[in-house]
User: Fold these one by one.
Assistant:
Number 1:
Amino acid sequence: MTGYKHVCRRKGCAHSEPRADSGLRRCPIDGRKLWAKPQVRPIRFQDLRHTRASLLMMSGANPAAVQRILRHSDPRITTEICGHLAPEYLRAEVDRLKFGVSPAPAERNGIRTKSR
């Protein structure tokens, strides 16, 4: 979404103002509330292809299979151009790393318990 277009509700009043938020605003002409209409970013077919590739990769699909589905000539094209991964997914992948450090011993009622 690119923002909001606040328009007057009164018939015949052509007052409108573009804003980034949907906060309450009033018409300077007659004082009525302005309606916040969301301005949606146009979507292209190519955007849907990129989204499909990203979702497939984040769900664990093989990059070579995604390359074949999208009919790319090289898997590198698929991973470099279409592999836009969500930040949450990338964070979860980094969290999968194990460094061999055991967690700190748990405390119960203010008394430290021995780790087994």
Note: The mean pLDDT is 83.
Number 2:
Amino acid sequence: MDMHIIVFAVLGLALLVGGAELLVRGASRFAAAVGVTPLVIGLTVVAYGTSAPEMAVSIHAALSGQADIAAGNVVGSNIFNVLFILGLAAMIAPLVVSQQLVRLDVPIMIAVSVAMLVLGMDGNISRVEGLVLFAGVVAYTIWSIRQSRRETKEVRDEYEKHFGGSRSRRGELLIDLLFIAGGLGLLVIGSGWLVDGATALARFMGVGELVIGLTIVAAGTSLPELATSVVAAVKGERDIAVGNIVGSNIFNILSVLGLSSALNPGGIVISPTLLHVDIPVMIAVAVACLPIFFTGHRISRPEGALFFGYYISYTLYLILNATSHAAAGTFSTGMVYGVIPLTFVTLLILGMRATRQKGSRADTR
């Protein structure tokens, strides 16, 4: 395998991350300059901007006929965002979910995840279905902006602290626009290099493009979300850490998948493996957020470690299965019939306990 392919893939990833940073910085400053509140900037501009690498890669892959990378990138990124990033952020500092919008967004994240499964059951997400998904992100954005007005002062202050300092003067708007244009340019170039490198890597390793899309490409394009959420967790800005992940996951399905399908004449092919294994995993991960987000409105360190451990297990399963390792069947059976049911029972008990505690506190008032 030519080393220059690996070099181009790494450079492509670097350009994607750098492009996303320029895009988010320029768009945030521009939005602040024209009077958009820091809360709306955090909920929309930043959450969507950190998903720009997924958008660039999936559109390029779809137009290049590499549907497994296009769809695998969306599904893999959503799994990575919740299990790896949210798990890591919670291990750094327990995440208290006080943001009302996040608790409303989690059911939406579950709904759009199920919608992807339903639309893909015929093995394809057509252009029309892609347009429907993309229309959904427009409606969701408008709804988010309206709901943001109901947020508590605590949440508004947190976003003001994080994003309020990026306000540009009117004379600097041209620089902000150059940042946006430069970021978009780097995303276009970087996506091409990364997709070409990932395809060559899949051939060299003897694994399918879907596995590469679900792992290396998905993790790489999620680096902006990783940086945003981990830095926010370290700073104690926990609503931003959680809101960034949930908003990005919704955006990935509605906008990234929707636009990729709409721009490709044949839509995007959904492979049987993705349909029967990885999308159900993505849905299960989204559903697992419900009891955790509602048990005392916090994600504790043990719950974060549980999420993180699940991502390691999921990645190990993909590698064992892709290489036809003898332990793949045993590992899969143990996860499906042992670990996962035990986890859901544990989460159910936690949820019931939290509900009873709330009832007891209410009775004593």
Note: The domain at 3-359 is CATH 1.20.1420.30 (A middle domain of Talin 1).
Number 3:
Amino acid sequence: MFLKTLALKNFRNISESFLNLSPRLNLFIGDNGQGKTNFIEAIHFLVEGETFRYGDYSTIIQFDHEYSFIKSKIENNDLEFNVLLKLNKSKKEIFVNEKKTTKIEQYLPPVILFSPESLSVIKESADERRKLLDNLIATSHKNGRSLINEFKKALRMRNKILKDISEEKINRDTGIQTLESLNPIYFNLAAKLSYLRIKSLIEIKEHVQKALEKIETLNVVKFDFEYIISDQKIVDNSEENLAFLMKKRSQELFTAELSSGVSLVGPQKHDVIFLYNGNDSRFFCSQGQQRSIILAFKIAQIVYHHMVNGFYPVLLLDDVLSELDQRKQSSLVLSLNEIETQTFLTSTDVDVLKKLSIEKSTLFKVQNGTLTN
């Protein structure tokens, strides 16, 4: 499954552009600030339905225009689909073969994004690490994305009830009864999502270890993780135990939830700690070691996806080579040469192709949002 073409109109600084894409490597070369990342962002937006950068719809649509669109021809098991995402300042619409739809997962390849921001995930907030786990689930498991969306929907409903109770918009007893009727659904989804996160971490662990050993060739390293719920490391990761722990903690924080108007228990509050030789990488690793872990995790994610689904995801690499030292660059390049995945790479280095021994490569030079020869 891969993208054959990409067409953009009024997207950021790109007025109009059409690209025939390589099934292996698509390289966008240009100086900083010319719009290379906009092509990567457009692919991410088409698949994920959201940007990985700051800004709302109005900042994505080119100035003085009312709409923007992203269009791609997708090849999936010898079948072709034309997917169109049309965006105005208040909504987005998706069409497959000119028919409007809301479900496009079956038509689009999953994408894995690796950007300079990805390298700082370990030292950032727990929310960023949760996003890393959920991206692993969404890209690798058939029902992963729908499970995440179902949980988010239940969380929004639960938060709405709690907020209405705290702001006295509804009768307290009525609100609590409504909350109690929703809780079984909420905690069931919370347990399933938490279980899938931990299961995926367990299954990807050996692949992260192998990738980390290739990166840290000069050091003996051991990768591990801890999944944290309410400041406690989880040992029994069965769905039943996870549900029990969260229900128990919710009972303890019941008064606090009612007064704060927000759910204080659930996967949206969990954390994962990556261990480097048994130590918490947030506090006992250098920035270089933290980057090695994330680089290994991303490489492992590609391998894990292939193991689970039988095909590779699309890889988006936004100017990451410039952020890595020579050893990590070599490790990433070696992985790209070995893994048969469609890759989109941005760089200011015109000689980057010499580092990659990938035959099916297409080079795009970008200047001020326009492709040049």
Note: The first helix runs from residue 36 to 48.
Number 4:
Amino acid sequence: MTDLDRSGPSTRAVHAGEGPRGVHDPVVNPLVLSTTFISDPDGQGPLLYQRYGNAPNHVLVEARLAALEGAEDAVVLGSGMAAMACAVISVVSAGDHVVATDAIYGGTRALLEKELPRFGVETTFVDFSAPGWRDGFRDDTKLVIGESPSNPLLRVLDPRPIADEAHARGAVVVFDSTFASPVNARPLEHGVDLVMHSATKYLGGHSDVTAGVIAGSRALVGAVRDRAKVWGPTLDPHAVWLLERGMKTLAVRMERHNRNGMAVAAWAERHPGIARVHYPGLASHPDHAVAERVLDGFGGMIGIEVAGGGEGAARFVRALKLAKLAPSLGGVETLLSEPRYTSHAGMSPERRAANGIRDGFVRVSLGIEDADDLIADFDQALRAAAVPEAAAAD
């Protein structure tokens, strides 16, 4: 074990993967744009090629990501969906079966419901928080997919019983841990085989790079990497360089996200203009006890249900002055979105409501602004939302 293996997450986020630096070497890892590299004439060593994802920038960032997750290896790809898709197709084949959490990101659901059946792979969706979830397994189950905290209800899963059940049946477990980041949760420590991130979010942290990550054992990540070479979603080196830049401040950003999340959620739960708050740090959240056990921080994501339903939510988001309406999360700026128009637009209103996502639901990604300023912005917008537009016009 090296000194870096014993170091904290912020130290790893800044230094993991770096080699020794000498006098006059750059402090910042250089951006290498070359698509190809001179080969050994004797055919020794790996073939370096940007599309293979083994160029200098990729190698460093992947080592850093693996260190943050406590993984043997990691691969960085062109988006979170590229990472999830390559992970899935690296495990399943025609005739196999997948068990997935019902509280899953809309893009992943589309992959499982619309794409995989074309290749002879079926999926059963289960509620891992409810009794009977083991009934979703079959003899041909080869893959289990979890997401925690979930989008947008912030449901938190205990990975251990899920992993134990899957492994007893010979299945591989993948967890989407985007909302937590490696600072707040490391699913591999709880028996998960592969962890996935949309690195567009907290890992990048500045809303200026689109990327995805898979981390886990060397064998499983190697299988993902092999599929990526064929399907081609390798991340370009400039995006990798931006991702490394963002990761250096991950731990300190997450401290502020966690602090803002708790402050705004506690305030929102008392506000008459909000019918309900979804935040795992609150005692009112159904998974609060689980979250206290498996998370190191409750995060900067909050779900709020605005009083007045869909019309109230529409008035609320239009009245905001500091926070921005945009379909992403995990950046330094506060962003909001309405799942009915973004991540869960493919669901009918009835199906969304059955899944706890009623019209009036607003997903909030709290940035690193001062909490008092965010609360003031939300408060004035909620007061504006409480006045119907026709009355306001009068």
Note: DSSP finds 14 helices and twelve strands in the chain.
